[in-house]
Amino acid sequence: MATPQYTGDALAPPLTSPLTNKTFARRMESALPYLLLLPSMLFMLIFFAWPMVQALILSVRTPDGAWTMQYLERMVRDVNFTDALRNTFLIILIAIPLQFAFAIAMGLLIQAKLKGSALFLYFWTIPLAVSDLAAGLVWLAVFSDRGFLNSVLRTTGIMPIAFSWLSYENYGTLLMAVVIAEVWRATAIVMVIVVAGLQLIPDDYLEAAEVFGATRWQRLWHVTLPMIRPSLQVALILRTILAFQVFAVVIALAGRAMPVLASEAYNRYAELNPNGAAVYALLILTISLVTTGVYLRLLRTSEAEMGR
Amino acid sequence: MSAQTKTMPRPLAPSEEMPLNAAANKPTFAKTLGRLALYAAAITISLFFLVPIYLIFISAFSPQQAIFAYPKSILPQTLTAETMLFFWNARGVQSALLNSIIVGILTLVFSLLVGAPAGYALARFFFRGRDSYKMLILTTRAFPIVILSIPLAVNYIQWNLYDTLWGVAFAHTAMALPTTILVTSSIFIGVSRELEEAAQTLGCNRAQAFIKVALPLALPGLAAAAIFTFVLSWNETFAATILTQRNRTLPALVLSQIADVGAPLPFRYAAGFFLIAPSLLYIFFMRRYLLGMWGQVVK
Prior knowledge:
The complex is a heterodimer of chains A (308) and B (299). Chain A has 308 residues and is an all-alpha fold. Chain A has helices spanning 3-7, 18-60, 70-77, 81-111, 117-125, 132-143, 148-155, 171-199, 203-211, 216-244, 248-254, 261-270, 274-305. In chain A, helix 3 packs across helix 13. Chain A starts with a helix and ends with a helix. Chain B is built from 14 helices and no strands. Residues 1-23 and 295-299 of chain B have low confidence and may be disordered. Chain B has two domains: 22-85, no CATH class; 91-263, MetI-like fold. By secondary structure, chain B is mostly helical. At the A-B interface, helix 2, helix 4, helix 5, helix 6 and helix 7 of A face helix 3, helix 6, helix 7, helix 8 and helix 9 of B.
């Protein structure tokens, strides 16, 4: 299929000499990987790199083309700005450690080879394919005023008066509901990474530790966790980046009662203010990059401290 | 990566070492108790994941009065499709479902067409810039691509892509592409290079060797990667909402109904169940590939 193509090429040598033919084939061979990469490079340039530049431009330029800081100033002065920033960070600070603690515990449970562990694994991975919007709606059925939590609390007599878990006035329980929904949805992703990492640990490592008298905790702390550390680091960065975009789960559970950065971006956009929305996009972008940088730095230095 | 996992040398098969271990540590009372605690933990975690799904199921299949009833019973008196039908017949739902499927398929096709060649190049060739390209792909995953739909929407208006399914599919492809490239690359690493070379010595050219030998062997893995991409697109809410106005995908429609119109509870519950139902099936059929897929993705 490919051979006749060469003859049409201006660079193609005549097909007579086997030697030049060979050098041509070699040249094609060395160009081939770049040709294969080209579509993906172009695609990411148009749909990833350019929007990033565009976000920057929209943030600092009016539709008339004048440079301005007004969008930035308006964002910072907005009544919801500090709330949105605080809520986003609180969700991340509470949900991500919980996700990782649960994921490691669940991964170890799977490794303990319980009977029916395949079934457990199936149950625990169901949320892998559940969207954040659906996860929010699932927990809405639990936490809404006439939801199942209030129903159970009333029928068991624990709390006869219904409590508005998702009300603006009960910030603590609203935050808790969002965190629970996030933990419910995203722990599975981390767990799968943990399990995949655990399976790569050769059995002899743990056996050797056992032979030398390491207790279960020592084996976990000194063998298992260091071995899955690289996968955990990547997962930590990716989960945090995704959490800065937390949106649909909050809308589903809290509506407008709990502004987050992405929902503010959405609101500006819905108000036909793409510049205002772009400033938020730029903010999320900047926070994500700074966080990645901080993570990489922190994780590397602690690695040096551990002498590995 | 998965190939490595399989061929990793193990000193003994688990069945072989069993008698040794069993003789060494006889089950004591404390051990049995510890084992029971592990089962209790596993069952508690399972309930945490399953009970909410059960509750959204009975909510979606309760009559509308039962949804507003209080206190509700955990065991429903009647199950009916009334609420689900209310959702199904709500304005825009059926066309949004069709849109979601079309966007999912387009995303799947684009990301394989654009991503698989790059993955193949990474798997088969050592060339200058290979490591920097790989680094670039890994770094894009540290960017909040979903949020970029906002500036993208402004571009789309100029490019006549705003409020089109193509536009949403392109945005979803950009999100899926880094993962697709990395996953397809590890799939092709798993397909032996020697087989392709053998085909070439037997008279195939490079393209024929790829199509007749490597591709069929990689197909199951590629199919898994494709379904993964479809699910990503099916679930994506923010970009789909930003990039469309009338041609909503299902999550975009549901979200805008909730955020802008304040859709009633029966609509929300039915939508919640409708959105997660495919994922139950998906995880059930894909459970054998899950560990390999996600395990590879983070390497």
